[in-house]
Design goal:
The chain is α/β, with parallel strands linked by helices. It has a domain at 2-66 and 76-97 and 159-224: P-loop containing nucleotide triphosphate hydrolases (Rossmann fold, 3-Layer(aba) Sandwich), CATH 3.40.50.300. It has 7 helices and 10 strands.
């Protein structure tokens, strides 16, 4: 079953007198339970495609379906509700609030949706699973980069999303910590059936996913269903 369906997806920007064709007619599907990486040079459209899939922006034209729902027909409020309930995000810069402690950062999405009591239980379970049960009251700015990334992952999963979108999640991590991140994503994918889509420049990371989608100038130029890195 297709979790995400993109049909003739287009996202163009005006830059002065020029039109930037960030995404230029992409049609593809990502099935529930897939572990996918999106690769390509800077400016190829990777992050724009991720933002479109995450309903963080609207396309210029084309359609995005999430679990069969045509998002082009949804109001901004309904898009936000779908995004909050079904999609988790992990970013390169973590985007944690430095004045909040670890548990408060993980629980942050529950301020807008979900059961707070059940969310606290889920937060503690996630933090134990990722090895941070001894850091519950530490502030985000007291953690290492790898620890902050793990907190960001827990925050992304607290609402039990069907889809996890990660934008250059290992870009600020050392090799060992990046490897730990990939192992965690793989276990979540295999054990919980989480659909994972990662935008990355790291071909070693891409080689560990089940499917590699390569973008160039807003177009899909390769789509390899194998754990092999492809040259950018």
């Amino acid at each position: 079953m297709a979790l995400i369906e993109l049909t003739e997806l287009v996202k163009h920007y005006r830059q002065g007198k020029n039109t930037v064709r960030a995404i230029d007619g992409v049609t593809l599907g990502i099935n529930a339970g897939e572990f996918v990486s999106v690769v390509g040079r800077s400016g190829s459209g990777k992050t724009t495609m991720l933002d479109l899939c995450g309903l963080l922006m609207r396309p210029t034209s084309g359609r995005i379906r999430i679990e069969g729902v045509d998002t082009s027909e949804l109001s901004d409020g309904r898009r936000a509700e779908l995004r909050g309930n079904r999609i988790g995000f992990v970013f390169q810069e973590y985007n944690l609030l430095p004045t909040l402690n670890v548990v408060e950062n993980v629980e942050l999405p529950l301020r807008y949706t979900g059961d707070r009591a059940a969310g606290r239980k889920r937060s503690l379970e996630l933090l134990e699973a990722i090895g941070l049960s001894d850091k519950l009251r530490a502030r985000a700015d007291e953690l290492s980069g790898g620890q902050q990334q793990r907190v960001a992952i827990a925050r992304a999963l607290v609402n039990r999303p069907a889809l996890l979108l990660a934008d250059e999640p290992t870009g600020a991590l050392d090799t060992e910590t990046a490897s730990e991140f990939v192992s965690l994503m793989r276990s979540l994918n295999e054990e919980e059936g989480l659909t994972v889509v990662i935008v990355t420049h790291d071909l070693e990371l891409a080689a560990q996913t089940d499917r590699v989608i390569k973008l160039r100038d807003g177009h899909v130029v390769e789509d390899a269903r194998a754990r092999v890195a492809i040259a950018v």
